[in-house]
Amino acid sequence: MTDSNPASGTRLAGQAESPAANIKRRYAKERRFQAYGIAALSFAILMLAMLIVTIVGSGWSAFWQHEVQLNVSLDAKTLKLGDAPDANALAKARYRRVVRNSLKSEFPAVKGRKERRKLYGLVSSGSDFQVRDVVLDDPAVIGTSQDVWVKTSDDIDTFLKGQMSDVLSWEQASALQVSAVSDTVELTAAGQGFAAIFRDASARVATLGAPAPTAVGMVALDDKMPSYLLQTPDSIIKLTSISADAAKGEVLQSLAGAGVGTSGTWRVDAYLQPEADRRVKDQEIAWISKLRAEGRIDQRFNVSFFQTGDSREPELAGIWGAVVGSFFTLAITLLLSFPVGLLTAIYLEEFAPKNWVTDIIEVNVNNLAAVPSIVFGLLGLAVFLNFFGLPRSAPLVGGMVLALMTLPTIIIAARAALKSVPPSIRQAALGVGATGLQTVLHHVLPLAMPGIMTGTIIGLARALGETAPLLMIGMVAFIVDVPQGFTDPATVMPVQVYLWADSPERAFVAKTSAAVMVLLGFLILMNLAAVLLRNRFERRW
Question: What is the pTM (predicted TM-score) of this model?
Answer without folding.
Answer: 0.84
